[in-house]
Specification:
With about 150 residues, the chain is of the alpha+beta class. Helices cover about 40% and strands about 30% of the residues. The protein has five helices and six strands; from the N terminus they run ααβββααβββα.
């Protein structure tokens, strides 16, 4: 079983995430290599799709299991849920570590403890000049792949 499928099964069992969420995660992130980033809060797993300007970030397995237990004990309430800013800090640290100059534009909970964040990165014009702001979704496929 692939890692992303194991995470999805954990999600369904621990948090009651719906099938549509699991299908979305599997469809969009199953083929994405996992990276890790450590912050003072957690050691996160990151699934980056730079061509799409988005990534999924999730807690370490230990934290995810702990959050699932708390959710189960509190009937899946938000008590014990890790706040968005904790995940966003992980995303920003990961992006900084890639050497790309990017900024987060949006972030939303897929299913506790998995968040998806969108971002844009600066691209230096091939002829020189000043950097351009873009989202991968705004560019032709050949340029977005750079």
């Amino acid at each position: 079983m692939r890692l992303i499928e194991a995470v999805c099964l954990l999600l369904v069992g621990a948090t009651g995430a719906g099938c549509a969420t699991v299908q979305y995660i599997s469809r969009n992130y199953a083929d994405v290599p996992v990276a890790t980033v450590e912050t003072p809060y957690d050691n996160f797993r990151v699934y980056d799709r730079p061509g799409d300007g988005r990534m999924m970030i999730t807690s370490s397995f230990g934290s995810a299991i702990g959050q699932g237990v708390v959710a189960g004990l509190t009937y899946n309430s938000a008590i014990g849920a890790t706040p968005k800013y904790v995940f966003q800090e992980g995303v920003e640290k990961y992006l900084a570590g890639t050497g790309r100059r990017c900024s987060v534009t949006d972030g939303y909970l897929l299913a506790q403890p998995q968040w998806e964040f969108r971002y844009t990165c600066e691209v230096v014009a091939p002829v020189g000049g000043k950097p351009l702001q873009h989202s991968a979704l705004d560019l032709p496929a050949t340029v977005a792949a750079l």
